[in-house]
Specification:
The termini are far apart. The protein has nine helices and eight strands. The chain has about 270 residues and is α+β, with helices and mostly antiparallel strands. It has a three-stranded antiparallel β-sheet. A three-stranded antiparallel β-sheet has the order 6-7-8. Strands 1-4 form a two-stranded antiparallel ribbon.
């Protein structure tokens, strides 16, 4: 009896261990964990059964699988279009950054084989197309407008794939060195031309002011005398010499002779 009891106990223990192992395998196969930013695409016998996540979820054993995991975070992709001709036949190289993310995992998996490569290819094609329809001056001066246009084009093209293009930004535009030097010389010549025009306008304005001042002095001779005396005072105050040479005509017109005689007489009396 004891031997039979031991055999029964051994068989029961083996059966329990086997059952626990089977349950562990089933749970290991059924349980899935998805991160907060991930969605797992579930296929039931090869057909789409939904996108699961985030967190812990269960699968039907042997009927459901999760062959694809889709990242819902914003992705940054670099696109470079080298030696692309503008509308005025100028070769340029453009470096662009694209910000996009998946908004519908079902479309991203079922409608396109590789949505990442599809987005990069569409972005490069759209970039070359937009540059080819724009002049060089427009490409260099209106980056924001080109970014907005390319964002709209890409967003409409990737919408059937469940992808949202958030923005497109051109980081760098390279043009040939010879053309860059020519544009620099043109800009320098334009600045010099503007400087000459500004200087001429200033000369005209100054001449007009002098003409107006001459009319005022002509109508009021005393103003001329006062101005001359003020100028002589400013010269004597700022100069480092005690001798100032004044033309005799200026002395006569401003009556400096009487003033000079009075000053000399005052100085002689003070010395005596």
């Amino acid at each position: 009896m004891e031997m039979m009891g031991m055999e029964i106990l051994g068989v029961s223990f083996t059966f329990l261990v086997t059952c626990l192992f089977v349950v562990f395998l089933i749970l290991r196969y059924c349980l899935r964990i998805s991160s907060e930013w991930e969605r797992k695409v579930v296929l039931r016998l090869g057909r789409f059964a939904g996108a699961r996540g985030p967190g812990l979820f269960f699968l039907m054993p042997f009927f459901e699988t999760t062959p694809f995991t889709v990242d819902l975070r914003t992705v940054t992709s670099n696109i470079t279009a080298e030696q692309t001709l503008t509308r005025d036949n100028v070769p340029v190289s453009v470096d662009t950054v694209i910000y996009w993310k998946v908004v519908d995992p079902k479309l991203a998996i079922l409608q396109v084989a590789d949505y990442r490569q599809a987005i990069l290819g569409a972005a490069q094609t759209a970039l070359r197309d937009i540059i080819g329809r724009s002049d060089l001056a427009h490409v260099l001066s209106d980056r924001a407008g080109l970014d907005s246009s390319m964002t709209a084009v890409l967003d409409s093209q990737t919408e059937p794939w469940g992808v949202k293009v958030e923005s497109v930004q051109m980081r760098d535009i390279k043009i040939p060195d010879a053309l860059q030097d020519a544009m620099s010389r043109v800009a320098q010549a334009a600045r010099e031309s503007q400087a000459r025009v500004l200087l001429g306008d200033s000369e005209v304005a100054i001449a007009q002011r002098f003409a107006d001042a001459g009319k005022v002095y002509e109508a009021n001779p005393m103003a001329v005398h006062l101005r001359g005396m003020n100028m002589l005072y400013e010269v004597m105050k700022s100069g480092g010499t005690s001798t100032v040479i004044v033309p005799s005509s200026a002395v006569q017109s401003m009556s400096f002779g009487g003033m000079a005689g009075l000053t000399a007489l005052a100085g002689q009396q003070k010395a005596e």
